[in-house]
Design goal:
This protein has ten helices and ten strands. The protein is an alpha+beta fold.
Length: 361
């Protein structure tokens, strides 16, 4: 540090004679003038850069489509210039002859300040990338949880870096943290497992906030995705809480990502229905379904002879994942089939038995 101070100190011979040679608190008036000059000139240069260079760069970045340069310029303006301000202050301070304690205090403050500023910079860049790539209205809670964890991690690394540069022996601290970390890991194995699976959910995205899912016998919409648990609003009204490990280890049906819903239904008509009408029924159903919007007809066939009915199986697809829309469409189809069968005098089957009695004379 002393060698560095000697290199950056300004030596002006004319300030070491006459009036300027007089001094107080261990420094001559000339030395105080040098320190003040460095401070004022440095701040003036930074002011000019901020006024002209930064304003020019802002005009350039406003014309670009990518907003990453806007983010960097804004962050540099808020972070880099305070660092440069401190650099000017430090250069002016070391022009003076300071006692060891005061010099160490200035150095320590500088280490802490610069470490925090650079940590903020790297965290802000990472936060920007994550929000740009993954953050949406549906999973904003997930990104918040991830960024909280990253912020804690960066804070710990910054603290270790500061302690190391201030002369503390962090090897014993790290060793102690290692032993303590093993003990904590064994005691909180399930919690750490859930935390890991939180990141699995975040990056793999098997579901998001608002998705309707079925897990085993439970069904509902994703309400909250936390670091340890995920909460589901059940269709019956109650809130179901799953651990993240349970969800990532289960088979999940995600209905929100369904592009179209396959529907299969059967109808039965009575025995004795004329063969001409039996042949017409698939076409009747087909014509009804094809006239409905957001529906793809697949097939309709005379399926089998049952105990009391002749059954027809129909398959169609509803475009989209809205369950309410599917029920509305099915209701329209049922009403139209019923009306069409009634107009053609086609009877629906229902469970019946016919008893034949042979009466002897």
């Amino acid at each position: 540090m002393n060698e560095f101070m000697e290199k950056v100190r300004i030596n002006l011979d004319f300030l070491n004679s006459g009036f300027f040679k007089k001094g107080f608190l261990g420094n001559s008036i000339g030395r105080y003038i040098v320190a003040l000059a460095v401070l004022l000139v440095g701040f003036m240069i930074l002011k000019v850069i901020k006024t002209f260079v930064v304003s020019k760069l802002k005009k350039i970045t406003e014309k670009t489509k990518n907003n990453f340069d806007d983010f960097l310029l804004e962050f540099f303006e808020k972070t880099l210039f305070p660092v440069l301000d401190y650099g000017v202050f430090y250069l002016s301070i070391i022009q003076l002859n300071l006692n060891v304690g005061l010099l160490k205090l200035v150095y320590s403050i500088g280490i802490i300040f610069l470490s925090i500023q650079f940590t903020r910079f790297f965290y802000a860049v990472l936060e920007y990338i994550i929000h740009q790539k993954w953050d949406t209205a549906e999973n904003s809670l997930k990104t918040t949880g991830v960024m909280t964890f990253i912020k804690i991690l960066f804070g710990c690394l910054c603290a270790l870096f500061i302690l190391d540069n201030l002369g503390f022996n962090i090897s014993t601290v790290i060793a102690g943290l290692g032993v303590g970390g093993v003990a904590i890991a064994l005691a909180s194995q399930n919690i750490l497992n859930d935390l890991f699976n939180h990141f699995v959910i975040f990056f793999d995205k098997p579901f998001e906030i608002g998705d309707f899912i079925i897990v085993g016998e439970y069904a509902g919409s994703i309400k909250h995705i936390g670091i340890k648990t995920t909460r589901i609003s059940s269709i019956s009204g109650e809130e179901i809480v799953f651990s993240n490990s349970d969800l990532t280890g289960s088979r999940i049906k995600n209905y929100k990502r369904m592009e179209k819903r396959r529907i299969v239904f059967e109808i039965g008509v009575v025995y004795g229905t004329p063969k001409e009408q039996i042949a017409e029924i698939p076409n009747i159903i087909k014509n009804i379904i094809e006239k409905i919007e957001n529906v793809e007809f697949s097939r309709s066939h005379f399926k089998n002879f049952a105990a009391y009915s002749m059954n027809f199986e129909t398959v169609y697809f509803v475009l989209g994942n809205d369950f309410g829309a599917f029920r509305d469409i099915q209701q329209i189809i049922n009403n139209k089939i019923y009306q069409e069968f009634e107009d053609r005098k086609i009877e629906f089957a229902y469970p019946t038995q016919t008893l034949f009695i042979n009466k002897e004379s």
